[in-house]
Specification:
Elements lengths: L3 H37 L3 H4 L18 E2 L5 E2 L7 H8 L13
Antiparallel strand pairs: 1-2
Length: about 100
């Protein structure tokens, strides 16, 4: 009769053989994929593997587009700062407040 230990040993051996076969097959598939990519001029970006990088660096701020007489600035992006919202609430426009697009 086969023991638990013998079966575990066979399982471990089969797992090693399985991994070796997987690696061999994967190498063949990768070679085939690379050949097809070269033949058709396909890039990683075409496949969606590499996303195009944003022009803007993370953490970079946008340049100020609007400025009031006190020197406070706003890029025009995102939520309006309190001082812009308050001025607009009084009926003024960006042009009325002496803002400029820089």
């Amino acid at each position: 009769m086969t023991t638990y230990k013998e079966i575990k040993t066979r399982i471990a051996k089969l797992e090693q053989e399985t991994e070796a076969l997987r690696k061999a097959e994967m190498a063949a598939v990768i070679t085939e994929i690379k050949a097809k990519m070269a033949e058709y001029g396909i890039t990683s970006k075409d496949l969606g593997v590499i996303k195009s990088k944003s022009k803007k660096q993370p953490g970079a701020t946008s340049p100020a587009r609007y400025r009031n007489k006190e020197g406070q600035t706003w890029s025009g992006r995102g939520r309006k700062p309190k001082w812009v919202a308050e001025a607009l609430a009084t009926g003024k426009t960006l042009e009325d407040m002496g803002f400029f697009i820089g």
